[in-house]
């Protein structure tokens, strides 16, 4: 029986045949999706690696852009949201 951490079906499995003709299973890591804009769902640029362990080690300024809503909205959506908020006041 595999170790408990490998029992999840979310892990991708690949069957490997060893040189000694034994069959083993290799468990693949899950791929992380890219960060997306909350409004238009485009990929956000300037964001650090999506792997949480790696991201935690970075300085806060390296994790995301230094502007309001950085890491949440793309620049185009931010511009339109700011214009809209100024118009509504």
Tell me what the structure shows.
There is one protein chain. This protein has 89 residues and is of the alpha+beta class. It has one domain. It is built from 3 helices and 2 strands; from the N terminus they run ββααα. The longest helix is centred in the C-terminal third of the chain and has 14 residues, at 75-88.
Q: What percent of residues are in strands?
A: 5-15%
Report the principal-axis shape: elongated
Describe the main β-sheet briefly.
Answer: 2 strands, antiparallel
Q: How many DSSP E strands?
A: 2
On the 0 to 100 scale, the average pLDDT is 89
Q: Topology as H/E string?
A: EEHHH
The total count of helices amounts to 3
End-to-end C-alpha gap = 63 Å
> Could you estimate the helical fraction of the residues in percent?
25-40%
> Structural class per helix/strand content?
alpha+beta
Count of spatially separate domains: 1
Strand order of the largest sheet: 1-2
Provide the low-confidence segments as ranges. Answer: none
Rg over alpha carbons: 21 Å
């Amino acid at each position: 029986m595999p170790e408990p951490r490998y029992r999840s079906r979310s892990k991708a499995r690949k069957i490997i045949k060893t040189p000694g003709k034994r069959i083993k299973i290799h468990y693949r890591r899950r791929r992380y999706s890219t960060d997306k804009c909350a409004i238009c769902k485009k990929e956000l640029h300037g964001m650090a690696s999506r792997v949480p362990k790696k991201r935690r080690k970075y300085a806060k300024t390296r994790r995301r852009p230094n502007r309001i809503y950085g890491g949440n909205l793309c620049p185009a959506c931010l511009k339109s949201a700011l214009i809209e908020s100024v118009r509504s006041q």
